[in-house]
């Protein structure tokens, strides 16, 4: 049953006096009921209101529609300007109140009675009257239904979502028992009604009935409601302060909860059905402490919603809150359909991983396995370095097979090793399935394209490092030089220096040159490793030149190849070997122990039977050694060898040989000069022309003298 009350300033009311008093009430509405509604029957016009009001101005003044629970029931009141009082003074108002019970408005939010039959009623024709019939049943107005509110919020712009979230966030503590009030400031009084309606529809019905409000107050400091609407003029007159300014959509800076932000997003996306489900779920969790039940309801509602904003909210909620929400949901809604919905799509990997771990911890295996598959799908769709792998145990065989299938398919389209690492890590840790052939093929492609950071690969765990690194290096070996130079950074070369790179000789040579330049003491080792690659059908001449930017000595070469008779395996007498020895003989002495031993060692190499290049130098060096010996016969043989192969020797070595041959010819017997002289006369003469008084000129003269035809002093008579 609902009781009705009318209140104004009059010369004769129910109290048989003049002044402010009740002028009409329902039958049976005693003094206690009148006292219960009286605090809400007040009105103070804004301070900028003209004194000489006309009817049109009066109609534009804000109407104070209020609602508040009381000990005797629920109070609805509406106060509006009503001309002059009985003495002709301005400031009179007409107050109308209804006292009812919660049963009368079951299924309604109190704000829905704005512009309803209760708030638009007219006073009775006969005043005073204390025998009014009971108020008519509560019927909602048509101005603030959810669809209209949603349309109005859309027109308010994108900032309305944040403003609404701030209002909801501020209301919840007040409904939980905190002291304070929310002041909404605007010149448009109907906007206050709409904001209150949006907040009311965002709350479970029982909480909405605890949300007291007044749409306009001329003295907000003494308003006894949780939400107070007022105008800028009133707010400035009372000193201002923190408030919610509806026209500019400015709210005090506070962090909104997951519940408030979720509700505001649903309003903005115009998902009224989802909004109603979330609010209903929050109401069903009322046994959980406030405001946790709102947060848990929001989290359960978010689980099936798509979009990046949903993922952001779940990330903010965190694993612990999601886990608890799932546990609470399973307890309160064991058969509810939320447990059978699919997870939202389009989330980030991190959001799916959070839900997977939370669901596993809460015993919600279906959600956990679904989230794991979404984790795999997210990485396959937009590969990125994930910070962690969700910890979910005991995945079903079907989930493992589905995840493995997605991962293997994704291997065919990856573009970088970072992406490949994501897939391999997930495959190994989630499914235990690791298709090595597919992984290696993908790694080869990354290496060939150069889309790889070798330093990252080298710092991976042993598995899958070795598998991926082998493929990457194989692809990089086939890549163009510019790609290889870009990938083999100084730090990458440093990480590869102790690895066996025999299978990738091009990469090996780059690494060996880098080692030799950084650590000159390791040039011997680097040379040996480089020469071991000769059989891999690559040229190491350039690499050896870079390793030995300062030419090696014959002693260095002996350290590389070993001394004569040394058991160390040696490479064939290839251009690389010959080039290295030639540089040694061309730069340093060609006589002495080390050069001779090097020449003998070189003749032990496979393929040294036919002198070419440095092999000729070796023959000449050994010939010179014979010239320096005491055995004249060996000296002559050495001289013959020099004469035979001199023309094929390098220019530097040749000049040094000629110097030694010239000195020998000046002291050897004519027989020795005759053995080698003719073949070397021309080159000796060529060098002698530049030094007429030098040893070479004398050697040429001696050759000519020894080979001059003999004249007989005595001739046989004719």
Description:
There is one protein chain. With 718 residues, this protein is an alpha/beta fold. It contains 31 helices and 10 strands. Strands 6-2-1-5-4-3-8-9-7-10 form a 10-stranded mixed sheet, sandwiched between helices. Helix 3 (146-156) crosses helix 5 (189-201), helix 4 crosses helix 8 (258-268) and helix 8 (258-268) packs across helix 10. The protein is rod-shaped and about 170 Å long. 44% of the residues are buried. The mean pLDDT is 85.
**Shape summary:** rod-shaped
Structural class per helix/strand content? alpha/beta
Instruction: Give a count of the beta strands, DSSP E runs of length 2 or more.
Output: 10
Helix share bin = 40-55%
**Beta-strand percentage?**
5-15%
Our Rg estimate from Cα atoms comes to 51 Å
Key attributes of the depicted protein:
rod-shaped, ten-stranded mixed beta sheet, 10 strands, 718 residues, alpha/beta, single chain
Write a brief caption for the model:
By secondary structure, this protein is α/β, with parallel strands linked by helices. The chain contains 31 helices and ten strands. The protein has a ten-stranded mixed beta sheet, sandwiched between helices.
Walk me through the topology.
Elements (H helix, E strand, L loop, with lengths): L2 E8 L8 E8 L4 H7 L17 H6 L3 E7 L2 E9 L11 E8 L28 E4 L13 H11 L2 H17 L6 E4 L3 H13 L3 H4 L4 E2 L12 E4 L1 H6 L6 E2 L12 H11 L3 H13 L7 H11 L5 H25 L16 H13 L3 H17 L15 H14 L6 H15 L4 H14 L4 H5 L3 H17 L2 H7 L2 H7 L8 H14 L4 H9 L9 H7 L6 H8 L13 H13 L5 H10 L11 H14 L4 H14 L5 H15 L4 H19 L6 H12 L12
Parallel strand pairs: 2-6, 7-9, 7-10, 8-9
Antiparallel strand pairs: 1-2, 1-5, 3-4, 3-8, 4-5
């Amino acid at each position: 049953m609902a009781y009705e009350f009318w209140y104004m300033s009059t010369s004769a009311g129910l109290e048989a006096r003049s002044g402010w008093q009740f002028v009409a009430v329902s039958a049976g509405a005693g003094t206690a009921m009148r006292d219960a509604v009286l605090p809400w029957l007040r009105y103070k016009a804004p301070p900028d209101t003209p004194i000489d009001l006309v009817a049109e101005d009066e109609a534009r003044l804000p109407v104070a529609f209020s609602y508040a629970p009381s000990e005797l029931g629920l109070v609805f009141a509406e106060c509006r300007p009503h001309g002059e009082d009985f003495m002709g003074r301005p400031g009179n108002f007409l107050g109308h109140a209804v006292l009812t019970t919660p049963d009368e408005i079951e299924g309604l939010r109190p704000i829905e009675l704005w512009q309803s039959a209760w708030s638009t009623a007219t006073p009775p024709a006969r005043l005073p009257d204390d025998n009014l019939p009971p108020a008519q049943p509560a019927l909602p107005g048509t101005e603030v239904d959810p669809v209209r509110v949603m349309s109005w919020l859309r027109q308010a712009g994108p900032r309305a979502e944040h403003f609404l979230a701030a209002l909801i966030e501020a209301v919840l503590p007040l409904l939980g028992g905190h002291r304070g009030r929310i002041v909404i400031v605007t010149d448009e009084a109907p906007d206050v009604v709409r904001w209150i309606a949006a907040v009311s529809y965002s709350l479970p019905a029982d909480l909405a009935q605890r949300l007291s409000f007044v749409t306009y107050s001329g003295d907000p400091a003494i308003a006894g409601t949780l939400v107070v609407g007022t105008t800028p003029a009133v707010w400035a007159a009372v000193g201002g302060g923190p408030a919610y300014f509806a026209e500019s959509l400015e709210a005090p800076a506070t962090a909104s909860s997951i519940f408030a932000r979720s509700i505001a997003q649903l309003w903005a996306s115009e998902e009224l059905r989802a909004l109603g489900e979330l609010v209903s779920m929050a109401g069903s969790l009322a046994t959980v402490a406030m405001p946790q039940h709102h947060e848990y309801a929001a989290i359960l509602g978010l689980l099936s919603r798509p979009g990046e904003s949903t993922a952001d909210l779940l990330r903010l909620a965190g694993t612990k809150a999601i886990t608890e929400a799932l546990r609470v949901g399973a307890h309160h809604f064991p058969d509810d359909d939320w447990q059978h919905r699919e997870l939202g799509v389009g989330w980030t990997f991190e959001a799916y991983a959070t839900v997977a771990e939370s669901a596993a911890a809460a015993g919600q295996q279906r959600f956990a396995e679904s989230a794991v598959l979404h984790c795999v799908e997210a990485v396959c769709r937009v590969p990125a370095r994930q910070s962690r792998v969700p910890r979910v145990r005991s995945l079903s065989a079907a989930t493992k097979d589905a995840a493995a299938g997605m991962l293997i398919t994704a291997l065919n389209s990856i573009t970088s090793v970072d992406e490949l690492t994501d897939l391999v890590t997930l495959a190994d840790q989630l499914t235990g399935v690791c298709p090595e052939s597919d992984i290696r093929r993908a790694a080869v492609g990354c290496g060939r394209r150069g889309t790889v950071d070798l330093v990252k690969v080298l710092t991976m765990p042993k598995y899958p490092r070795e598998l991926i690194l082998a493929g990457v290096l194989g692809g990089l070996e086939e890549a163009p030089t510019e790609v290889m130079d870009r990938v083999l950074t100084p730090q990458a070369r440093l990480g590869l220096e102790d690895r066996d790179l025999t299978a990738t000789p091009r990469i090996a040579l780059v690494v060996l040159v880098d080692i030799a330049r950084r650590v000159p003491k390791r040039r011997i080792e680097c040379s040996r490793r480089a020469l071991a690659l000769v059989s891999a059908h690559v040229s190491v001449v350039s690499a050896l030149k870079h390793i030995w930017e300062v030419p090696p000595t014959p002693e260095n070469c002996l350290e590389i190849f070993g001394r004569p008779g040394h058991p160390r395996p040696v490479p064939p007498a290839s251009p690389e070997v010959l080039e290295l020895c030639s540089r040694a003989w061309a730069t340093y002495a060609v006589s002495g122990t080390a050069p001779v031993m090097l020449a003998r060692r070189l003749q032990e190499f496979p393929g040294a039977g036919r002198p070419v290049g440095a092999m000729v130098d070796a023959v000449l060096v050994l010939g010179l050694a014979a010239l320096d010996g005491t055995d004249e016969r060996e000296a002559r043989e050495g001289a013959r060898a020099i004469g035979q192969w001199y023309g094929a020797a390098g220019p530097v070595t040749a000049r040094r040989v000629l110097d030694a041959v010239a000195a020998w010819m000046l002291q050897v017997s004519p027989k020795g000069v005759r053995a080698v002289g003719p073949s070397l006369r021309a080159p000796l003469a060529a060098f002698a022309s530049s030094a007429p008084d030098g040893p070479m000129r004398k050697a040429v003269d001696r050759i000519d003298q020894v080979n001059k035809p003999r004249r007989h002093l005595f001739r046989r008579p004719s």
